[in-house]
Design brief:
The chain is of the alpha+beta class. Helix content is 61%, strand content 18%. The chain has 2 domains: 2-144, no CATH class; 149-236, 2-Layer Sandwich (Alpha-Beta Plaits), CATH 3.30.70.260. It has helices at 2-6, 9-35, 42-84, 97-114, 118-133, 136-144, 167-180, 211-222; strands spanning 88-90, 93-95, 154-163, 185-194, 197-204, 227-236. The model has no long low-confidence stretch (mean pLDDT 83). It holds the Pfam family MgtC_SapB_C.
């Protein structure tokens, strides 16, 4: 029987330690995720860590260190596909990135345990849990901090509503006023929006602006003959 031939008490004990380590550490990571009510919670993180440990441990038994190294590379790519399944796009927002990254880290914990690097697996687990818990206050503080336009990177567009009969003068005034404010135009588009009216959209070269400077430019544009409205819009660059 192959089982009798392949069974080695020392190797079996080593596998028990590896898999049990992955199970316990995956439970610690997953418990925090379950508490936060994430889509990939306790059982998912345990199974990812345990599965990674089992594959790596089997590779060590069958093919040694070289085989384990190859399997680890497959685990990394395979868990990447699994993580993609928990990432969702809702409108302009992307959700689940942190959960996917945690699954990836759980697989790394399991791979360490399967390769018999138990201390490294424990250290990685502590760092993963710390990243998901201790950094939360810092994330909230950064998110709530007021953002100055001059320090943010975004796409800025100036919208001008002009009389079609004076479109060329409106475009020239748009270029002149924005250049005077030191905000050169990267691109400009014109669209007919109604009887005798055009909307001119100028995209600025700069990705960081002084809002007060541009507001003054908007006021100046509104005073140009043929321009009835001017406004500034911002959108994220990523």
């Amino acid at each position: 029987m192959l089982f009798v031939q392949n069974f080695n008490p020392a190797s079996f004990a080593d596998s028990v330690v590896s898999l049990l380590t992955a199970f316990v550490l995956g439970t610690l990571i997953g418990a925090e995720r379950q508490y936060r009510q994430r889509s990939a919670g306790l059982r998912t993180n345990v199974l990812v860590a345990l599965g990674a440990a089992a594959f790596v441990d089997l590779a060590v038994l069958v093919a040694g260190a070289d085989g384990a190294a190859r399997v680890i590379s497959y685990v990394v790519s395979g868990v990447g596909f699994l993580g993609a399944g928990v990432i969702m796009k809702e409108g302009g927002d992307v959700r689940g990135l942190n959960t996917a990254a945690t699954l990836w880290a759980s697989a790394a914990v399991g791979a360490c345990a399967g390769a018999d690097y138990v201390a490294e697996a424990v250290l990685l687990t502590v760092m993963v849990i710390a990243g998901n818990t201790l950094l939360r206050p810092l994330v909230k503080a950064i998110d709530r901090a007021p953002i100055r336009d001059a320090e943010s990177e975004a796409i800025y567009e100036v919208y001008v509503l002009a009389d079609s009969a004076r479109a060329s003068e409106a475009r020239e005034a748009l270029y002149t006023i924005l250049n005077k404010a030191r905000y050169p135009v990267a691109d400009i588009e014109t669209e007919v929006v109604g009887h005798g009216m055009l909307e001119i959209v100028a995209t600025l070269v700069s990705q960081s602006v002084d809002r007060e400077e541009l507001n003054r430019a908007m006021v100046e544009l509104k005073q140009v003959d043929g321009i009835s409205r001017a406004r500034l819009e911002m959108s994220t660059s990523e």
